[in-house]
Structures are given as C-alpha cells and as structure tokens.
Amino acid sequence: MAKYLLLKHYRGAPAAVNDVPMDRWTPEEVSAHIQYMQDFATRLEGTGEFVDGQALSPEGTFVRYDGEGRPPVTDGPFAETKDLIAGWMVIDVESYERALQLAGELSAAPGAGGKPIHEWLEVRPFLAAPPTITE
Questions:
Q1: Which end of the chain, N or C, is surrounded by fewer C-beta atoms within 10 Å?
Q2: Where's the YCII-related domain (predicted)?
C-alpha cells in the first residue's frame, strides 16, 4: 500500500470544466458538493483506502524562524495568493493507477448547477523513505 495526497486547489490549478467559483454557488450547490465529498470518503473508509481529509480556510500565514530567542517572522494572511488550496485527502491504495482513478472520481464532485466540476486535482505520493546520499 502507498499513501497519496490529493490536493484540491481553489486557485492555482488549471481551470475546471465547470469553473464557477464556489462563492457564487447556491447554498444547495455547496451542500451537494460537501455531501459528495463525505460520501466519497465514507466509501473509501469501507475499502480501507481513506486515511484523512479536510477542507481548508482561505486564510493562511507564512511563518519562518528568525533566530534564537526571537519571535517567528510572519507574513500574511494571504487569501489573495495565486495558489490557494481548498482541501486535501490522504488515501492509502495499492497502486499509483488506483490513486489516479480515485482522484478522477473525486474530480466529478458537483458544482454550479449540480454539474460535475471536472476540476484538476494534484496527486502527490508520500515519500516512502528519506533520500540517501552515496559517494
């Protein structure tokens, strides 16, 4: 089994087929979308392929270390950034092909007008082992 991160981009990915921003959906369309996501996760829980998933707030702050005894440096929030991640799901599947299959299904979540979004999802494998350095 291998773990993969499925990233849902609100901005920064190629445009979806049904490219109406979520803030312009009706409450019913938002509810239908969330229900699809919950049903998808429940189905994967049943097959043992679901690990975790969360929706994310559009607000975020960058933080970095600024030296011993000094407070961290922050910059943000950045709700206007080019790339905005709307949420993520971690799956544990038998193969890369299965990860792609599930990402394709998740891409069909309904959006405006109840039609599938056909959004682009980013599929990222977890690192299985740290890289080694050879001389």
A1: C
A2: 15-107
What pTM was computed for the model? Answer: 0.81
Distance between CA atoms of residues 33 and 20, nearest Å: 13
Is the pLDDT at 82 greater than 70? The verdict is no
Percent of the chain with pLDDT over 90: 56
Q: At what angle do helices 27-47 and 96-106 cross, to 10 degrees?
A: 160
Amino acid at 77: P
**Which CATH number characterizes residue 53's domain?**
3.30.70.1060
Residue 130, domain member (yes or no) = no
Distances (CA, A) of 103 to 20, 68, 126: 20, 43, 15
Q: What angle do CA 73, 13, 44 make, to 5 degrees?
A: 95
Q: Tens digit of pLDDT for each residue in 42-74?
A: 999 999 999 999 988 877 777 888 899 988 888
4, 123 Cβ separation under 8 angstroms: yes
> Is 3:91 a contact under the CB 8 Å cutoff?
yes
**What is residue 110's DSSP assignment?**
B
Report the domain count for the chain: 1
| Structure token digits, residue 47 | 């097959």
pLDDT for 133: 79
